[in-house]
């Protein structure tokens, strides 16, 4: 019996024209910068997919080969390879990468890679930084992954170890062409799949013995307080735990609903679905299926065991028959009742009956591919299991300790995972366990979560450790609520980035050096990252200064012009800065000309469907465009509609155009309302045209720009906003910005007045005087930030 339905689609055979081989070696020139190096004592080579690699059929590559005195020389525009055609040794195999300093870009076999690192299996019990595994990007211009010891994937869906003395290494020599390297890695190892739309909302999770009544009351309170959630995570106590007879062992593993807590599971999950929430259950499968389980008799019988003997059905991920029964008798029935996906919480090591096979990888592989059986987009939620794990999103990063040190590590950890293609991490936002109560820490963690791939609030089983906003002081409660609403509003933007990750190989979160690899400063800000195509984030991960009431973040402003997402402040790029923010905000900057689509949250709901009302934030810049991608949101059958949002000029006038949607418009509402926020734009006279005809609109001038609202427009119409006068950007009011900083500062009133009057009178020229006043560093830095933000 096999598991054919769990076979990965791929093309593992390399194009013959790309292969240079001998009796014991094979070199596959997959691209001009990506090389597969194989050595085999018995002369047999691996053409099947492996746990890491699924596609080797790259297009024919241009290269030259020569054989001089028994040594092989291969040249491409990016690499030169010198090999003595013997078993790999440091002296016999060398690769030089074009560009850079010659001593930096040379690799000899056996040398450890000096790359920018990737990610790690888990943050379990982490209290701050942990070591990371290798990635594929390097300042030195090359890296490598050793695929020698991974399993081969057989055509029946099972795996087997490779035998004999074999080497199987992939060398990435892309220099600083990081995005090109990553794109080829995604082809080699499989694309990042599309996530369901609902995953981009807020997730509620807590290790707590909820009853059905308590859980419903919690969701209803969230709704009353207008705090949106789209995913309900129910931790292990959904199943029998303490009610298990000790003769059967612990209740850590379980598949039987605890009817004391959830008397009608199907009705409970149906209720959650009615409230626009998907549901995932935690499962620890290691202890198998014991005789007390409701499904035990069915499982034992199908496994050829006598149910009367009550012997446990042992967990064995290497047994195809067991895995078939595992899904069909344990998981599918509960999925039919309402479970949308599973939280696979494997913590029991790396040993299976197949030497070298990691059970975590196998569980991720099977669970993900199985989850599409109902026709919905497959999804699983589990720990990272090595290169290639990006094919099985979403990643659960584990149980962190609640400290500032843990928070300080997570932005870097998240962004750096893109260096091994792993783009969809979900952290325990707020931290999981131990540590200490610090309301400010929780607020900052939630802010990070909102600008992370997945925002899942979570905590351990402790009555004092919950992430409900009302558990915190009023300021932090307000901040948490506002940011959770913002996350829900960001779903249209995030879902478009989901499309880009799948189709273009661009992770949502990317380190700063991806786009400016030659700027050393871009490597010096590990917590600073791009968040999709339009935004850049620099989370605050340290406590506020008590005098200024501001936290700060070291930030690299890339070349160009940038605008604060929240208040519109303009920054000239190409420099390193410290950005200061109160507890209410973190530094989120939009590039010049950025267009960010949001769901209009004036009317509360938990719904993540394609919204009937959109709010578009349009930042200053002569040009700018954004293509909004939408579809049904949770189907394996893709049917997309694209809506281009664009700045333009027509007949000498500035315009903003919402083009007619192209594609499957049936997935969109019949009519849409549009709220267009033109950030920092001075008041202007406008006309609004719908399919060329003038229509009514509402225009308001606000502190941060001009807003135009258009209601109930047929979704297949073109909307054009025409500005009668040239669009002009409002100037910064330095005195007012200084006042807003000084107002909350915990310093003497006389000093506040002196500083305010100085800036009011001297504007940017006040910097020299400020430098002579021996101010606290945070106060001096915050005032300098606004005075030097733009030229």
TrEMBL record:
InterPro entries from the UniProt entry: GH (IPR017853), Glyco_hydro_31_C (IPR048395), Glyco_hydro_31_TIM (IPR000322), Glyco_hydro_b (IPR013780), Glycosyl_Hydrolase_31 (IPR051816)
Keywords for the protein's UniProt record, in alphabetical order: Glycosidase, Hydrolase
The Glycoside hydrolase family 31 TIM barrel domain, residue ranges: 192-497
Domain Glycosyl hydrolase family 31 C-terminal: 505-596
Family according to the record: Belongs to the glycosyl hydrolase 31 family.
Full protein name: DUF4968 domain-containing protein
UniProt source species: Blautia stercoris
């Amino acid at each position: 019996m096999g598991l054919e339905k769990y076979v990965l689609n791929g093309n593992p055979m390399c194009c013959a024209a790309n292969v240079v081989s001998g009796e014991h070696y094979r070199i596959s020139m997959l691209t001009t910068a990506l090389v597969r190096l194989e050595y085999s004592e018995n002369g047999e080579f691996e053409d099947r997919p492996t746990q890491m690699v699924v596609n080797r059929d790259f297009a024919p590559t241009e290269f030259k080969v020569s054989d001089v005195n028994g040594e092989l020389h291969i040249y491409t525009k990016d690499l030169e390879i010198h090999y003595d055609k013997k078993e790999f040794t440091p002296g016999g195999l060398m690769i030089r990468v074009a560009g850079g300093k010659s001593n930096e870009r040379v690799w000899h076999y056996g040398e450890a890679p000096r790359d920018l690192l990737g990610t790690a299996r888990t943050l379990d019990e982490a209290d701050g930084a942990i070591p990371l595994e290798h990635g594929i990007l390097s300042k030195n211009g090359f890296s490598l992954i050793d695929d020698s010891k991974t399993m081969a994937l057989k055509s029946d869906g099972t795996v087997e170890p490779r035998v004999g003395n074999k080497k199987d290494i992939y060398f990435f020599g892309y220099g600083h062409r990081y995005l090109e390297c990553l794109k080829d890695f995604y082809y080699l190892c499989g694309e990042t799949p599309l996530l369901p739309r609902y995953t981009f909302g807020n997730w509620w999770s807590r290790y707590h013995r909820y009853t059905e009544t308590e859980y419903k009351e919690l969701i209803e309170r969230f709704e009353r307080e207008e705090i949106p959630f789209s995913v309900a995570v129910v931790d292990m106590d959904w199943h029998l735990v303490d009610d298990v007879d000790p003769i059967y062992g612990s209740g850590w593993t379980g598949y039987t609903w605890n009817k004391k807590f959830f008397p009608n599971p199907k009705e409970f999950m149906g209720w959650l679905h009615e409230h626009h929430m998907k549901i995932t259950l935690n499962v620890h499968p290691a202890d198998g299926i014991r005789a007390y389980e409701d499904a035990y008799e069915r499982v034992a019988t199908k496994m050829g065991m006598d149910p009367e003997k009550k012997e446990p059905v042992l967990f064995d991920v290497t047994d195809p028959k067991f895995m078939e029964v595992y899904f069909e008798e344990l998981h599918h029935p509960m999925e039919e009742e309402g479970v949308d996906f599973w939280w696979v919480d494997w913590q029991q090591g790396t040993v299976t009956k197949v030497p070298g096979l990691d059970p975590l990888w196998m569980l991720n592989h099977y669970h993900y591919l199985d989850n599409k059986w109902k026709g919905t987009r497959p999804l699983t939620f589990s720990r990272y299991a090595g290169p290639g794990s990006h094919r099985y999103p979403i990643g659960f990063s584990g149980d962190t300790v609640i400290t500032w040190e843990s928070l300080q590590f997570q932005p870097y950890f998240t962004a750096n995972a893109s260096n091994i293609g792993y783009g969809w991490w979900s952290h325990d936002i707020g931290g999981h366990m131990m540590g200490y109560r610090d309301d400010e820490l929780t607020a900052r963690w939630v802010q990070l979560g909102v600008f992370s791939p997945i925002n899942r609030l979570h905590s351990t089983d402790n009555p004092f450790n919950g992430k409900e906003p009302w558990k915190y002081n009023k300021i932090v409660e307000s901040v948490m609520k506002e940011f959770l609403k913002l996350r829900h509003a960001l779903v249209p933007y995030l879902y478009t980035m989901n499309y880009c990750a799948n189709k273009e190989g661009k992770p949502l979160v990317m380190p700063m050096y991806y786009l400016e690899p030659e700027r050393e400063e871009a490597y010096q800000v590990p917590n600073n990252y791009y968040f999709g195509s339009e935004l850049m984030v620099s989370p605050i991960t340290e406590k506020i200064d008590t005098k200024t009431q501001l936290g700060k973040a070291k930030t690299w402003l890339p070349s160009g012009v940038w605008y604060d997402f929240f208040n519109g402040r303009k920054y000239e790029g190409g420099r390193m800065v410290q950005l200061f923010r109160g507890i209410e905000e973190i530094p989120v900057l939009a590039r010049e000309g950025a267009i960010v689509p949001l769901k209009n949250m004036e009317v509360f709901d938990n719904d993540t469907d394609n919204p009937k009302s959109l709010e578009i934030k349009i930042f200053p810049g002569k040009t700018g465009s954004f293509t909004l991608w939408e579809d049904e949101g949770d189907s394996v059958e893709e049917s997309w509609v694209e809506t281009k949002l664009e700045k333009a000029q027509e007949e000498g006038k500035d315009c903003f155009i919402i083009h007619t949607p192209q594609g499957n418009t049936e997935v969109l509402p019949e009519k849409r309302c549009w709220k267009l926020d033109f950030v920092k734009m001075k008041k202007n006279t406008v006309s609004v045209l719908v399919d060329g005809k003038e229509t009514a609109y509402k225009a308001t001038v606000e502190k941060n720009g001009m807003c135009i609202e258009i209601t109930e427009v047929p979704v297949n119409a073109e909307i054009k906003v025409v500005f009668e006068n040239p669009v002009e950007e409002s100037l910064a009011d330095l005195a007012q910005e200084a006042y807003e900083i000084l107002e909350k500062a915990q310093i003497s009133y006389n000093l506040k007045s002196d500083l305010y009057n100085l800036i009011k009178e001297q504007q940017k020229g006040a910097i020299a005087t400020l430098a002579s006043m021996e101010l606290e560093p945070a106060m001096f830095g915050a005032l300098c930030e606004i005075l030097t933000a733009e030229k």
